[in-house]
C-alpha cells in the first residue's frame, strides 16, 4: 500500500464555501428577550404567607362565578360552597389544637360521665377506676375522661337522636340535643373545646335539617300525603299553611322554654332556617340572637356561640352583614373585659391559651364579614367597626385587629396605612403579640404600596416604634415585612438604620428559628434589590449580619450571593473575590458534595462558575495562586477541579499570547494542571482535560510535558470502561470524538525518537482491539481516525501546525526516514485489516452499511488506489450495498468516488 | 262492644265562644245499634280549690269550693233510631255561646294549682235500660273572642327598673352591701299572650362577680274563701339571660316566650283572680350559694338580688 500525496492548501481552496456578508448580526434580535427574562426573575420571589392568601382569594372567586348566574334566586346553590367551606374549616379547626388523651370535665358535663359510668359497669370494674381520678372528684369536682370515650359518647347521642326521630319521638330528640348542647357550657376542656363544638354542632345541624324537612313536608303535603303545593326556593309565609306554621311555632315555644341561655341560643340557631316559615324577615331573629349571646360571660363559650351563629346565619337566604359586625363588636367588648380583668399570676398563661383557642372563631367571622360586604357597604362597615374616619376611637382588641387587617381589601389598608399604624400602636394588649400586627401591616402594604408621600413618614414611624422592641427576632420579623417598601422607595438612610439596629441587637442575643427565617428573607431581599454585589458588600454591617445566619439558611443566602456574583461578567475586584472565596469556603464546609446527585447540584455549579469568572487581569501569578488556594479549599468538588484545570490552561494561553518572558509561568501552570488532573474522577472528562493540557503544553513548546500528558491520557483510556446502560451510547459517542481529537493532536506532536513515530498509534490500535466493551461501531470510528493520522504523518507538509508552524510537527522529526515510512505503512495495513473485520462484526445491517462506507472513504482518502486497495474498497461497497437501499446518497457518492479513482488506476 | 269517639274539626281543639264547636261522633260497632237518641253535652266551669299555699289547715280540709258554672247545655244530635253496623260518622255543630244566653263570661281555658277552667264536650248514646249507654268525653280549649278584646292598641310602654343594694329589703352578703351593684333596665309589663315579653337589662356596676341573671315568670292565683283571699304563687318558667359575670354597660336583651298551656289572660273575676308576675333575680357568685343548690328563686337569700314586676297578659287582636 502507498499513502496518497496530499496538498492540503490546494484542497482547502478547492473545497472552500463561498462567503457572504450578513446584513444583521444574528444575535442582535435576542437582546430584547433577555430583558424580559431579567424582569421575570425580579418578580419571581414569593412570600410563603401570601401564597395562602392567594389560594383563599382564588377560592372566593370560584364561588363568585358559581353564584353569579343564580344570584338571589337559588339559596340551595349558595348553600353548597358555604357548607363545604364550613366543613373544611371545622376539620382544620379540630386539627389545629393538640388534644390531650384525657379531657378533664366539670360537673356541667355530667351527661357524658354519668352514662360513662353505667357503661363501665357493664364492662369491667377495673376500667372505671382508670377512667376517673378519684382524688380530683373529691377536691375540685373535676373528672377526667378519655378523649375517645368522650367522642364515642357523643356519637351514641347522635345515634340515639336519629333513632328517636325515626320513631317520631320528637320530644326525646329535643331532649337529647339539649343534653348535648349543655356540654358546651363546660369550657374547662380548653383545647378539646373546638372538637367538642364541631361534634355538637354537627348533631344540632342534623336536628335543624330534620325539623326543616318535617315542617316543609307539612307545608307541601296534607296528612294523607296529598300534595298541597310545591314551595319555591324563595317562598314567603303566605305560602305556608296554618298547620305547618303551628308545628313550627310549637318548636320555637319548646326551645323558648329552655331555662339555660346557652342551649337555648344554640337550639334556636339550629332551627334558624325554620323561622322562614313564620316570618319574612328572619334576619330580625338573627339580630336578637346576637344580642342574646352577650349574656354568655365565658369568653370561649360566647366566641364559639358566635361562630355557630355566623354559620347558621348563612343558611338564611339573605345574610345581613350588620349581624356579623355586631358579632365582631361584641367580641371586642368582651375580649377587652376579659383581658383587662384582674390577673393573677397563674392565669396569664391560661389567657394566652384561651385566646389562641378562640382565634379560629374570630378568623372565621371576620372572613365571612368581609366576604359578604360589597364595595358600597365597605365604608359603612368600617365605620360600624370603629375603623372609619376616626380610627382613634376604635375599640379593636389586637387579635381582632389582626384578622381584620388580614381580610380587609388591600386598597383600604394601603390608603389608610397611617391610621392603621396608629391603631396598632394603641392596641397593645395581651391577646396578640403587637409586633405580629406591625408585621402583618407591612406585608399587606407590600401587596399594594401606599402613596409615595406617606411612605417616608410611615416607614420612619414604624422604625421608631419597633426601635423600642428589644427582641432581635421580633425586630427582624417586622423589618422583613417592610423591607420591600423601604427598598422600592430607595430609603437608603432607613436601610442603614435597620442594619445598624440588627447588628446592635445581635451583639448579645441568640437568634431563634423565626428570626433566622426572617433574617434570611431580609438578606435575600437586599440581594435581589441591588444590581452589583459590591454595593451589597459595601452596606455597613452586612457581613457581620450574614455571620448571624447558620446552617441551611446561611447556605441559601450564600448561594444567592454566588448567583448574583456569577450573574453578569467577570469578577475583577480583589476584595470581592476574597469575600466570595471566604463565604464559598463556608458553604463548601456545610455541604456534603460527595453524597449529592449530579443533576441538581446547584452549589457545586455555582462554585465552579465563580472560580471560572474570577479574573485578576494581568496579575496572572496572583490568579494562579488563587487557583491553588481554591484547590486546597474545594478539593472535594470534582466539577470545580475541572474548572481549575480549564482556568489554569486559559491562563497559560493568555500568558503565551501577551508576553515573551513566560516560560516559568507557563511551566507553573502546566505543573498545576498536571497535579490537579489525576484526582478528577470522571474519566472521560479527565481524558479530555489531559488532551487540553497537552495541547496547551504543546503550544507553549513544552513537548516533553505534552508527551507525558498524552501518555497519561492514553493510560487513562485503559482504565476506562463504558458500562451498559441508558447513557452508554452517548458516552461512547463522546469518547469516540475525544479519541478522534487525540488523533488530530498527535499530528502536531513531534514524536519521540526513542519510541518512534508510531508509538502512540500502536498503543491506540492495541487498545481498540483489546478493550472488551468496545463496539464495532466505535472500533471502526477509531481505526478510521488512526488511519487518517498515519496518512497525515506520511506527508511532507502537515495539514496544520501548533503555533503557526514555528514549532516542529511529527514529520519534521521523521520525514524521509524510510524505516519510519515502512512502519507507517505496515501499521496501516494492519489497521485496514482490522477495519474490515470490525465492519463485518456489526450486527445491525443499517449500521454496518454506514460503517462500511466510512471505512471505504477513509481508505480512499488515505491511499493511492491500487489493485489491492481497490479490492478492499469494492468489498466494502458491496457490503454496504447489501445493507442499504441503492438510492442512498452516501452509498452513491462513495460509489462514484471509487469509480473515479479506479478509472485513474486503469489509466495508470 | 261498640265504641264511640269524638273528633273535633281542629287538631289544636281551640275554639272561640262565638264560634261553632264542630266535629264528628264516630261510632264503631259490629252489629247495628238501636238507640233512644244521641245527645251532646257542653260543660264549662271554674273549679276552685284551696290546698297548701297561704291557706290554713282547716281550709285545706274543707278546700273544695263550689264550682262556678260557665256553660251547661245539652243538644239532641239524633232522635231515637238505629245505627247501621260498621263505622258511623255523625257530624255535629254547636254554637258555644248562644247570643240569647246571658250566662257568665267565657273565661279562657286554664289549668292552675288552685284554679281550673275547663270545657268539656260529652256525647251520650242511651240505649234503653237493657244496655249500658255509650259515652265519650273530650276537652276543648277556649280562647277569648276577638270581640272581647280591648280596643286600645297594645302600648309599647316599658317599665323602667333599677336594682341596687339599697332596693333590697332582705339581708345581703357583706361584700355585696359594701361593694355595691347597680343593674338597670326596662321591660314591658303589658303583654300579648302570643308575643314574647321583651325588655333589656344593663349591668352597670357590680363589685362581686355575677353568677347568673334569670327571669322567673310566676302565676298568682287568688281565691276568695269566705272573707279571706287565699293566694298561691308558683313559678311557671325560668329563663336565664346572663350566664356568668357579663360585661358591664352592655345591653342584654330580655326575651321570654310565654308557655302556652300555663298562661292565660289576666283575670279578675269576683270569686277568683289569675295574675302574673315577673321576678328578675341576680345571683352573685358566692361560696354560700353552693351549699344551697336548689332553692325557690323568690326566697330572699344573702347572695340574691330580686326585683318583681307585675305582668298583665292579654289576648290580642293580632292573634290571627
Quick structural summary:
Chain A is 70% helix and 1% strand.
Structural account:
Chain B: One of its GO terms (cellular component) is endosome membrane. The complex is a heterodimer of chains A (908) and B (320). Chain A is mainly α and 908 residues long. Helix content of chain A is 70%, strand content 1%. Chain A contains 43 helices and two strands. Chain A has a two-stranded antiparallel sheet with strand order 1-2. The longest helix of chain A is centred in the N-terminal third of the chain and has 28 residues, at 193-220. Chain B folds into two domains: 3-145, Immunoglobulin-like (Sandwich), CATH 2.60.40; 158-314, Immunoglobulin-like (Sandwich), CATH 2.60.40. Chain B is built from three helices and 21 strands. Chain B has helices at residues 57-61, 174-179, 287-291, and strands at 3-8, 14-15, 20-29, 33-35, 38-49, 64-78, 81-83, 86-95, 110-111, 115-125, 134-142, 158-164, 181-188, 190-192, 197-206, 210-225, 228-243, 251-256, 267-268, 272-284, 304-314. In chain B, a hairpin with a 3-residue loop joins strand 19 and strand 20 (272-284).
Instruction: Report the principal-axis shape of chain A.
Output: elongated
Approximately how much helix is present in the residues of chain B? under 10%
List low-pLDDT spans of chain A.
30-79, 115-140
Distance between the termini of chain A: 16 Å
Subcellular location (chain A): Endosome
InterPro entries (chain A): VPS35L (IPR029705)
Family (chain A): Belongs to the VPS35L family.
Keywords (chain A): Endosome, Protein transport, Transport
Amino acid at each position: 500500500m502507498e499513502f496518497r500525496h496530499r496538498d492540503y492548501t490546494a484542497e482547502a481552496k478547492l473545497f472552500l464555501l463561498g462567503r457572504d456578508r450578513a446584513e444583521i448580526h444574528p444575535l442582535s434580535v435576542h437582546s430584547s428577550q433577555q430583558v424580559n427574562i431579567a424582569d421575570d426573575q425580579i418578580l419571581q420571589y414569593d412570600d410563603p404567607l401570601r401564597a395562602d392568601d392567594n389560594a383563599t382569594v382564588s377560592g372566593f372567586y370560584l364561588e363568585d362565578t358559581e353564584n353569579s348566574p343564580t344570584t338571589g334566586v337559588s339559596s340551595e346553590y349558595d348553600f353548597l360552597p358555604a357548607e363545604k367551606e364550613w366543613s373544611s374549616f371545622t376539620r382544620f379547626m379540630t386539627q389545629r389544637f393538640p388534644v390531650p388523651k384525657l379531657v378533664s370535665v366539670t360537673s356541667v358535663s355530667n351527661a357524658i360521665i354519668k352514662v360513662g359510668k353505667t357503661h363501665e359497669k357493664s364492662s369491667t370494674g377495673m376500667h372505671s377506676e382508670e377512667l376517673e381520678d378519684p382524688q380530683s372528684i373529691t377536691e375540685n369536682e373535676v373528672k377526667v375522661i378519655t378523649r375517645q370515650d368522650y367522642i364515642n359518647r357523643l356519637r351514641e347521642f347522635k345515634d340515639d337522636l336519629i333513632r328517636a326521630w325515626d320513631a317520631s319521638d320528637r320530644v326525646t330528640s329535643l331532649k337529647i340535643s339539649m343534653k348535648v348542647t349543655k356540654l358546651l357550657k363546660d369550657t374547662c376542656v380548653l383545647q378539646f373545646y373546638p372538637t367538642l363544638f364541631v361534634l355538637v354542632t354537627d348533631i344540632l345541624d342534623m336536628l335543624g335539617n330534620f325539623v326543616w324537612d318535617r315542617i316543609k313536608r307539612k307545608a307541601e303535603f296534607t296528612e294523607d300525603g296529598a300534595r298541597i303545593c310545591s314551595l319555591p326556593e324563595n317562598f314567603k309565609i303566605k305560602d305556608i299553611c296554618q298547620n305547618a306554621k303551628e308545628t313550627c311555632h310549637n318548636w320555637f315555644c319548646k326551645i323558648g322554654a329552655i331555662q339555660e341561655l346557652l342551649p337555648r341560643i344554640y337550639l334556636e340557631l339550629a332551627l334558624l332556617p325554620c323561622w322562614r316559615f313564620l316570618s319574612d324577615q328572619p334576619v330580625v331573629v338573627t339580630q336578637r340572637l346576637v344580642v342574646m349571646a352577650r349574656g354568655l360571660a365565658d369568653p370561649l363559650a360566647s366566641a364559639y356561640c358566635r361562630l355557630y351563629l355566623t354559620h347558621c346565619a348563612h343558611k338564611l337566604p339573605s345574610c345581613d352583614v350588620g349581624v356579623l359586625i355586631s358579632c365582631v363588636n361584641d367580641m371586642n367588648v368582651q375580649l377587652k373585659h376579659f383581658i383587662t380583668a384582674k390577673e393573677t399570676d397563674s392565669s396569664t398563661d391560661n389567657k394566652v391559651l384561651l385566646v389562641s383557642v378562640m382565634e379560629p372563631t374570630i378568623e372565621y367571622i371576620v372572613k365571612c364579614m368581609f366576604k359578604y360586604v360589597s364595595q358600597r357597604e365597605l365604608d359603612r362597615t368600617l365605620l360600624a367597626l370603629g375603623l372609619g374616619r376616626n380610627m382613634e376611637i376604635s375599640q379593636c382588641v389586637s387579635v381582632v385587629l389582626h384578622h381584620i387587617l388580614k381580610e380587609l381589601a388591600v386598597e383600604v389598608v394601603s390608603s389608610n396605612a397611617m391610621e392603621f399604624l396608629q391603631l396598632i400602636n394603641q392596641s397593645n394588649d395581651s391577646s396578640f403579640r403587637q409586633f405580629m400586627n406591625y408585621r402583618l401591616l407591612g406585608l399587606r402594604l407590600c401587596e399594594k404600596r401606599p402613596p409615595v408621600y406617606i411612605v417616608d413618614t410611615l416607614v420612619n414611624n414604624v422604625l421608631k416604634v419597633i426601635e423600642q422592641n428589644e427582641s432581635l427576632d421580633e425586630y427582624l420579623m417586622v423589618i422583613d415585612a417592610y423591607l420591600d417598601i423601604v427598598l422600592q422607595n430607595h430609603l437608603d438612610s432607613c436601610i442603614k438604620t435597620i442594619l445598624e439596629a440588627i447588628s446592635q441587637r445581635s451583639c448579645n442575643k441568640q437568634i431563634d428559628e423565626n428570626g433566622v427565617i426572617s433574617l434570611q428573607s431580609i438578606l435575600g431581599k437586599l440581594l435581589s434589590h441591588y444590581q452589583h454585589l459590591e454595593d451589597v458588600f459595601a452596606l455597613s454591617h452586612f457581613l457581620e449580619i450574614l455571620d448571624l445566619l447558620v446552617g441551611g439558611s446561611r447556605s441559601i443566602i450564600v448561594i444567592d450571593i454566588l448567583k448574583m456574583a456569577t450573574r453578569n461578567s467577570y469578577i475583577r475586584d480583589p476584595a470581592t473575590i476574597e469575600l466570595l472565596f471566604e463565604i464559598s469556603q463556608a458553604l463548601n464546609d456545610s455541604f456534603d458534595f460527595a453524597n449529592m446527585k449530579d443533576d441538581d447540584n446547584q452549589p457545586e455549579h455555582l462554585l465552579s462558575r465563580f472560580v471560572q469568572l474570577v479574573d485578576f487581569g494581568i496579575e496572572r501569578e496572583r490568579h494562579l495562586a488563587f487557583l491553588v488556594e481554591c484547590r486546597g479549599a474545594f478539593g472535594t468538588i470534582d466539577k470545580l477541579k475541572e474548572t481549575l484545570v480549564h482556568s489554569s490552561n486559559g491562563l497559560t494561553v493568555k500568558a503565551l499570547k501577551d508576553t515573551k518572558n513566560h516560560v516559568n509561568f507557563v511551566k507553573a501552570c502546566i505543573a498545576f494542571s498536571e497535579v490537579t488532573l489525576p484526582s478528577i474522577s470522571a474519566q472521560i472528562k479527565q481524558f479530555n482535560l489531559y488532551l487540553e493540557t497537552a495541547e496547551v503544553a504543546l503550544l507553549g513548546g513544552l513537548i516533553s510535558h505534552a508527551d507525558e500528558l498524552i501518555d497519561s491520557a492514553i493510560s487513562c483510556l485503559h482504565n476506562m470502561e463504558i458500562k451498559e446502560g441508558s447513557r452508554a451510547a452517548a458516552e461512547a459517542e463522546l469518547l469516540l470524538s475525544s479519541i478522534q481529537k487525540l488523533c488530530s493532536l498527535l499530528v502536531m506532536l513531534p514524536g519521540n525518537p526513542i519510541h518512534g513515530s508510531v508509538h502512540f498509534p500502536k498503543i491506540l490500535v492495541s487498545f481498540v482491539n483489546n478493550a472488551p466493551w468496545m463496539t464495532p461501531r466505535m472500533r471502526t470510528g477509531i481505526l478510521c481516525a488512526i488511519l487518517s493520522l498515519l496518512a497525515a504523518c506520511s506527508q511532507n507538509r502537515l495539514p496544520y501546525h501548533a503555533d503557526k508552524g514555528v514549532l516542529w510537527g511529527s514529520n519534521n522529526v521523521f520525514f524521509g526516514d524510510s524505516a519510519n515510512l515502512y512502519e507507517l505503512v505496515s501499521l496501516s495495513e494492519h489497521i485496514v485489516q482490522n477495519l474490515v473485520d470490525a465492519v463485518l462484526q456489526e450486527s445491525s445491517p443499517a449500521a454496518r452499511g454506514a460503517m462500511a462506507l466510512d471505512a471505504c472513504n477513509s481508505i480512499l482518502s488515505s491511499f493511492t488506489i491500487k489493485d489491492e486497495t481497490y479490492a478492499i474498497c469494492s468489498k466494502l461497497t458491496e457490503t454496504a450495498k447489501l445493507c442499504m437501499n441503492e438510492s442512498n446518497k452516501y452509498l452513491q457518492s462513495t460509489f462514484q468516488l471509487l469509480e473515479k479513482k479506479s478509472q485513474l488506476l486503469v489509466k495508470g | 262492644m261498640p265504641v264511640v269517639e269524638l273528633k273535633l274539626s281542629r287538631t289544636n281543639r281551640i275554639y272561640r265562644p262565638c264560634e261553632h264547636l264542630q266535629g264528628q261522633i264516630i261510632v264503631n260497632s259490629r252489629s247495628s245499634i238501636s238507640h233512644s237518641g244521641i245527645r251532646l253535652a257542653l260543660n264549662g266551669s271554674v273549679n276552685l280549690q284551696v290546698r297548701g299555699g297561704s291557706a290554713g289547715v282547716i281550709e285545706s280540709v274543707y278546700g273544695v269550693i263550689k264550682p262556678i258554672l260557665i256553660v251547661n247545655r245539652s243538644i239532641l244530635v239524633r232522635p231515637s233510631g238505629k245505627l247501621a253496623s260498621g263505622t258511623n260518622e255523625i257530624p255535629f255543630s254547636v254554637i258555644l255561646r248562644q247570643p240569647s244566653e246571658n250566662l257568665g263570661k267565657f273565661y279562657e281555658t286554664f289549668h292552675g294549682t288552685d284554679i281550673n277552667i275547663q270545657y268539656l264536650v260529652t256525647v251520650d248514646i242511651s240505649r234503653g235500660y237493657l244496655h249500658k249507654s255509650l259515652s265519650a268525653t273530650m276537652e276543648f280549649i277556649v280562647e277569648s273572642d276577638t270581640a272581647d278584646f280591648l280596643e286600645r292598641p297594645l302600648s309599647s310602654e316599658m317599665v323602667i327598673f333599677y336594682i341596687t343594694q339599697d332596693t333590697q329589703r332582705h339581708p345581703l352578703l357583706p361584700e355585696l352591701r359594701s361593694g355595691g351593684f347597680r343593674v338597670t333596665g326596662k321591660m314591658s309589663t303589658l303583654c300579648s299572650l302570643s308575643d314574647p315579653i321583651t325588655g333589656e337589662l344593663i349591668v352597670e356596676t357590680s363589685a362581686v362577680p355575677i353568677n347568673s341573671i334569670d327571669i322567673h315568670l310566676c302565676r298568682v292565683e287568688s281565691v276568695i274563701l269566705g272573707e279571706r283571699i287565699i293566694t298561691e304563687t308558683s313559678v311557671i318558667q325560668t329563663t336565664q339571660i346572663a350566664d356568668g359575670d357579663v360585661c358591664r354597660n352592655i345591653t342584654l336583651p330580655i326575651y321570654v316566650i310565654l308557655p302556652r298551656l300555663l298562661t292565660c289572660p289576666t283575670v279578675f273575676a269576683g270569686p277568683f283572680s289569675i295574675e302574673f308576675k315577673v321576678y328578675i333575680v341576680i345571683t352573685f357568685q358566692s361560696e354560700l350559694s353552693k351549699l344551697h343548690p336548689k332553692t325557690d328563686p323568690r326566697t330572699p337569700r344573702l347572695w340574691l338580688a330580686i326585683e318583681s314586676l307585675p305582668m298583665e297578659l292579654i289576648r290580642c287582636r293580632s292573634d290571627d
